Amino acid sequence: MSVAAERIERLDCLAREATREGDEDRGRYYVRLARRIAERNRLSLPRRFKRFTCDACDAYLVPGANARVRLQDGHVVVTCDCGAHARYPYG
């Protein structure tokens, strides 16, 4: 694992902890930083990181706190507080 990938993993943990403690701005900062590192090093973000971040506002999503999760016709629909939707298949 490269240094950049390790840093992205660490930023994922920090963003999750900051958002759960109520500091959403710091969580957004960590998400933006991780995305920037991935772009510069041509890395793809881990699936867990992609699924728990909002593409529109860069918020780290915590179901029940700042995100709504619903099941619809074979898809998981995640709705952020900003109104953005993300759909992922399951089955």
Determine the structural class based on helices, strands and strand pairing: alpha+beta
What is the subunit arrangement here?
A: single chain
Give the number of DSSP strands. Answer: 3
Q: Using only CA atoms, what is the Rg?
A: 13 Å
Distance between the termini: 30 Å
Beta fraction: 15-25%
Question: Strand arrangement, largest sheet?
Answer: 1-2-3
Largest sheet: 3 strands, antiparallel
What is the average per-residue confidence, as pLDDT, rounded to a whole number? 96
Number of helices: 3
Shape: globular
Q: Estimate the helix proportion, in percent.
A: 40-55%
Low-confidence stretches: none
Helix and strand sequence:
HHHEEE
Could you explain how this protein is built, in words?
With 91 residues, the chain is of the alpha+beta class. A hairpin with a 4-residue loop joins strand 2 and strand 3. Helix 1 runs antiparallel to helix 2. The protein is globular. 18% of the residues are buried. The model has no long low-confidence stretch (mean pLDDT 96).
Short description:
The chain is α+β, with helices and mostly antiparallel strands and 91 residues long.
Question: What are the SSEs and their pairings?
Answer:
Blueprint: H1 3-20, H2 24-40, H3 47-51, E1 67-72, E2 75-80, E3 85-89
Antiparallel strand pairs: 1-2, 2-3
Key terms:
single chain; 44% helix; 3-stranded antiparallel beta sheet; alpha+beta; 91 residues
